[in-house]
Amino acid sequence: MKFLKQEQKKYEQIVDKLKTKNIRMTDIRLAIIAMLIKAEHLTTQEIIKNLELEFANVNVTSVYNTLDLLLSQHILFANTFNGKSIWYEIASEKSIHLKCDECGDVIHINPMTSDKFDFNEVVELAESKGIKLDHFKIEAHGICQNCRNK
């Protein structure tokens, strides 16, 4: 899989983090990490479907185990926007999503864009409760322009 320079760096950071914890890097694990770096959000079914294009035999249990491992290592975020499907994404320091409750579209706010916002109140709120943040997710709901125009 071809990566942009920034994607390649993220891929290497993730693989190095797992290797330092003596976690075995299988072809399936590497492919899942690469896939999630390239895509904004993928469901388990989409991950399995994409893996089946690349590998002859995909063990579904291995896919679920890899997702659980990556979640436990804080490499992935799991998002549920419709109460049914779980979408996975590579974890970041700040994760912001805007969801239209009418059509279901989800917009992922780019970390570069979110860096322009002042999140000090979130940090201060957490610290006032005795928690030092290392990352956070914000999910906001509303109705998009297209749905309001209908």
Automatic annotation (TrEMBL):
GO terms for biological process: negative regulation of DNA-templated transcription; regulation of secondary metabolite biosynthetic process. One of its GO terms (molecular function) is DNA-binding transcription factor activity. The keyword GTP-binding does not apply. Zn(2+) binds at C100, C103, C144, C147. InterPro entries: FUR, Fur_C, WH-like_DNA-bd_sf, WH_DNA-bd_sf. Belongs to the Fur family. This is Transcriptional repressor. It comes from Mesoplasma syrphidae. The lineage of its organism: Bacteria, Bacillati, Mycoplasmatota, Mollicutes, Entomoplasmatales.
